[in-house]
Amino acid sequence: MHAKPVVRQATASDAPAVQAIMNAIPWIAESAKTEEGFERTKSACGRGEVWIVEDNSVIASTMTLTKDSLAASCGYKIWLIRLIATIETARRKGHARRLIHKAKEIVDDGALTAHVQNDDSSALVSSEGFVLVEGQADAAGYPLYEWTRNAS
User: Fold this and answer.
1) Mean confidence (pLDDT) of the chain
2) What span, in angstroms and rounded, lies between the C-alpha atoms of 55 and 35?
């Protein structure tokens, strides 16, 4: 019997599987694939910034979600999805959508943002009520999308 996929916070012991998913991303910076990159991943897991979907005891998908500390210091609740990635064999099974739903639950009445890097991701966030923020992009030129509970 196939158990339902579980969304949970990653722990430091999940870092090798999270890192393996990240290492498989073609566009990810080479520096992220180093031992130092692994240590950053492990630290992010330890800080509670990494969420995973576990499907039949396999970590199938990962999301890094961080709170904008500068905005928080001014009283705003703005969160950034830094990354969502799924292993090749588990794509198109709703795992990334599960992670977005978890992010929305965490953010609650704040704003959830993401810099979208491909058409599939754009379609996913748009279907989840994110809207393109005109004129906003990251340093690499990836457009910013934003979701708020009131707007969806």
Assistant:
1) 91
2) 27
What is the number of structural domains in the chain? 1
Other CB atoms within 10 Å distance of the CB of residue 110: 19
86-122 pLDDT, tens digit per residue, is: 998 999 999 999 999 999 999 988 999 999 888 888 9
Residue 29: give its domain's CATH number.
Answer: 3.40.630.30
**DSSP states along 6-59:** EEEE--GGGHHHHHHHHHT-TTS-GGGGSHHHHHHHHHHHHTT-EEEEEETTEE
Domain that holds residue 127: 6-148
Encoding tokens for residue 145?
Answer: 């999308």
